[in-house]
C-alpha cells in the first residue's frame, strides 16, 4: 500500500544494512509516520509486546525476524541450540492470543534444525522470515479476490448503490505485510470502481480503527466514516450496513473466532438484523488444534493504563490524557470470542467456507 504516494510494506530489511529490521511504529499513527530500527532479539520482542507492531500476520512475521536476530546473537557452537530455544520462548511470551506468532516461531525452529552451523541457521532463519512475509502478502491478495466476489454480489443486488461495510479494529495492510485481511476485499472493490463506504469502529481502548484503519483508508482514497464502537447496532437496525468484515487473531477448527474485544457484540447485532458477518481468516490464523474457542483460546489482559488514558494530538504534539478517575479499578481484556454460529462465512486464501469443522476441513483436508 502507499503513504503519500510511496509504497511500503510494514516490515523489511534496511536497504543498506541487512542486519537491521525496519518497521512502521504503529504507536505514532496517524499523527506521525515513524520508521523504527529493530537491531536485536530484544527489540523484536519489545516491538510485539508493546504493540509497535500489531495484527496477527505482522506479529508472526516480526517473530520470525526475531528468530533471525536470535540466530545472529547466539553463541557459535556451545549453547547455540539452548540460546535459540530461549529466544523462541521469549518471543512466545509476548502475546498469548494471536496464533500466527506461535506458527511462525515453530516454523523457524523446525527450519533451522537443518542448519549444521550458526551461519547456516542465520541464513535459514532469514529465508524463513522472508518466506512468511511473502506468503502473507499472497494470502491477503487471495482473500481480497474471494471477498471481492461477495461485495460485487451485494453491489449487483443494490443496482450499483453504495455498499456499506462495517469493520472493527484494524485488519488492514498495517496489520499484515500488505493489502490486509478484512480490508483487502474493500481495496479491490474500490479499485475496481465499485461504490463502497466503510464504517470504521474506533475500537477502544487503543483506537486502532480511528487511528489506523481510518489512516490507511484515507491514504488509499476509500470513502469511510469513523464511528464510536457502540454505533454499529444502530446503523444495522436502520439498514445502513450491508455486511461486516473483521479479521481474526485465532480461529478454531470449528469456526469460533477470537478477535479484538467488541467483535462479539458486532456479531450479535449483525445476527439480529440479518446482516452478513464475514471473517477474513488466513490459514496462518487458524488453530487446527483447538475446537472450543470460549474454553481453549487464551485471552490476553493488557495494561489498565490503556483504558485510563487516551492518546491524541494536542497543539501538534502527541500526548496522553487521563479520562477516568486515576484510582478506579480497570480490567482490560484484549480480545473476545465470537461463536461460530454467528459467523456467516470465513474468507480464506483458499476460498469462502462456513464457520464449521466441515467447511474448514473441506478447504484444508490435510488438517483433518
- Let me know the average pLDDT: 96
CATH superfamily of the largest domain: Translation initiation factor eif-2b, domain 2
Head-to-tail CA distance between termini:
36 Å
Class based on secondary structure composition and strand pairing: alpha/beta
- Gyration radius, in Å: 20 Å
Number of strands: 18
> Into which percent range does the helicity of residues fall?
25-40%
Describe the structure.
The chain is an alpha/beta fold. It folds into 2 domains: 2-135, translation initiation factor eif-2b, domain 1 (Four Helix Bundle (Hemerythrin (Met), subunit A)), CATH 1.20.120; 145-367, Translation initiation factor eif-2b, domain 2 (Rossmann fold), CATH 3.40.50.10470. The mean pLDDT is 96. Helix 3 (80-92) packs antiparallel against helix 4 (99-112). Strand 17 (345-348) and strand 18 form a beta hairpin. The two termini are 36 Å apart. Helix content is 40%, strand content 20%. The strands form 5 sheets. A 7-stranded mixed sheet has the order 8-7-6-9-12-17-18, with helices on both faces. Strands 13-10-11-16 form a 4-stranded mixed sheet, with helices on one face. A 3-stranded antiparallel sheet has the order 3-4-5. The chain has 12 helices and 18 strands.
Please give a handful of descriptors for the protein shown.
about 375 residues; seven-stranded mixed sheet; four-stranded mixed sheet; 18 strands
List the helices and strands and how they pair.
Elements: E1 2-3, E2 6-7, E3 11-14, E4 17-24, E5 35-38, H1 41-49, H2 56-73, H3 80-92, H4 99-112, H5 118-157, E6 163-167, H6 184-191, E7 196-201, H7 208-220, E8 224-227, H8 232-237, E9 243-246, E10 250-252, E11 257-260, H9 263-272, E12 277-280, E13 286-287, H10 293-296, H11 305-308, E14 309-314, E15 317-322, E16 335-338, E17 345-348, E18 351-353, H12 357-363
Parallel strand pairs: 6-7, 6-9, 7-8, 9-12, 10-13, 12-17
Antiparallel strand pairs: 1-2, 3-4, 4-5, 10-11, 11-16, 14-15, 17-18
